[in-house]
Amino acid sequence: MTKQGASHTPSESCDAGIFRARVRLLLDLSLFRQAVAEIEQRVHWERDPESLRQLGLVMHRFAPRSRDRTCTYSCARALYRTAAARTRDPALRAEVLTLIGSSYFEEGRLDEAVAAFEASLSLARWKHAAHLGLIAIACAQRDLAAIRRRCEHFGEDVPCWHLDREVVALLAADPDFAFLRAAPALFHECFGGYPEHLQALHDRYCIEALDRALDAFDTREDGEPTDALEVTKVVRRTFSSVGEIVCSSACTLQGISPDSLQARIGF
Fold first, then answer.
1. Which is the most buried residue in 3, 9, 118, 239, by most CB within 10 A?
2. For residue 165, what pLDDT is reported?
3. DSSP string of 206-225?
4. Burial (Cβ within 10 Å: 0-12, 13-18, ≥19) of residue 91
């Protein structure tokens, strides 16, 4: 499928990426007021689709701890819809529709969530979030046929999902997919591997991220002893599933041959 959307200069895309990363970090730290302040620093933020999306995300993330969850979720969706109305970029519209679907899912309004996720896929089937939302709903409903169907569509539309660390982390650890992980035969039918294989891939990604972070430290600068990085060994022991599982002849996931999976994980 050809991706279509509004053209952006490299500097604009970089700026938007930095902006998203800053807001996401503040939200991960539950610094909601600071996140709003960050958004309001943008020029014409009240008319800028990306700023409105981010402001909706602040409301969305705050909603579970709000005194009036229903009202806060409704405000978030209003901001999302305003952002969608102000952009000509179908990819951004698809993201906003996925966020609307997520807010409905969190409220338990599953039919409305399905409608929003499917509307998102009609604009950008290659984006993983709406697919995962539909799989999560099928898991919540314990609908085995729907789980199989949604996973099949996911694999067809996002064949390289296993290369995305965020997707792997969600499928391996998010509570929304616990039902699927608790059914190894069903999981194998959907993904061509078992939950422990996906967990091993997730562990490898975690180790890679931690290795990069540890490499950023120069122990000589502060005169620290070399054994200060003993934490590296602890981390690797923590992610103990990787080696044993990946070396297993049964280790495979849909779309990944055993050899390429072993190379990807690094054993």
1. 239
2. 93
3. HHHHHHHHHHT--TTTTT--
4. middle
